[in-house]
Amino acid sequence: MKSTITIEYCPKCGWLLRAAWIAQELLTTFTDDLHAVQLVPSEVAGRYTVHLNETLLWDRKREGRFPEPKELKQRVRDVIDPERSLGHSDR
């Protein structure tokens, strides 16, 4: 069964474009592994979280910043296919 990534973002903070960009990066890298990437507007101000199925991969408040695409791709890979090479994203 393919995985679903959910990006919950604060629309009042203007983070839709960031969430869409990250969704595009993940869909491009994990074309055959993902069922979907969902963009969910949060009702909680300042929220930006990324879940892979039920696993929390990133929480902006906990990490203190937004994820770089490279590190988020590595976290997704580590869950769905730890042996997979991400090419330049592994360097």
Automatic annotation (TrEMBL):
The keyword Glycoprotein does not apply. InterPro entries: Selenoprotein_Rdx-typ, Thioredoxin-like_sf. Signal peptide: none annotated. Coiled coil: none annotated. It holds the Pfam family Rdx. It comes from the Bacteria. Keywords: Redox-active center. NCBIfam families: CXXU_selWTH. This is SelT/SelW/SelH family protein. The lineage of its organism: Bacteria, Pseudomonadati, Bacteroidota, Cytophagia, Cytophagales.
